[in-house]
Amino acid sequence: MTKELEVKILDIDVDYMEKKIMELGGTLLSKELQVNTLIDSNIRPIKSYLDAYLRIRETKDLLNNKESTTLTLKKNIKNTHMRENIELNSKIESKEVVLEILKDLGFDKIEVGHKKRTSYEFKGARIDIDIWDEKTYPYPYMEIEVENKETLDLVVEMLGIKADQISTKSIVELRDELVNK
Question: Do the bridges between strand 83-91 and strand 141-146 make them parallel or antiparallel, or are there none, so unpaired?
Fold first, then answer.
């Protein structure tokens, strides 16, 4: 179980931001290809009883040539400045077996998205630059994960991020906004 504090930075120029992070002393952590499978129930959606979502993430680490698959229940905790989550993670051996088990338990809604993620360490923060496939989410964004608000404020200031670019919404909420426009 891990706790995370994060925000998304919308409307970014990926090349500019990567260059700026490195120029200011950031360190490249990883380059990944991910397949994210969101799992829910049409009859009893997770959001109807828990502010959370269930995901299987298949990750291919391009720098270390490693692959992993993780089942995650990501539970949101209310926080005005950042998105605060509790993540329950477990490595899984077979995505297909886990999906079959979940289907038998009533989880019949499956959505698959593909993402490229480049991650950096910068001033005590983890910065992930995410580029989804066009169908999942057509705009690149950054996630800044920190241990406290002071670190977030420092990173935002150093990178020249404007207040209107900062979002505490999940990818599911951002996608829903696009659909409902």
Answer: unpaired
Residues 6 or more apart in contact with residue 167 via CB below 8 angstroms: 7, 8, 9, 10, 141, 174
- List the domain boundaries for the chain: 2-179
- The answer to whether residues 91 and 102 touch, using CB atoms and an 8 Å cutoff, is no
Handedness of CA 81, 133, 54, 56 (dihedral sign): negative
Q: What are the pLDDT digits (tens) for 37-53? A: 999 999 999 999 999 99
pLDDT at 157 over 90: yes
Q: Which 8-state DSSP code applies to residue 105?
A: T
* Verdict on whether the full-model pTM lies above 0.90: yes
Query: What architecture is the 2-179 domain classified under in CATH?
Result: Beta Barrel (2.40)
The overall average pLDDT reported for the chain is 94
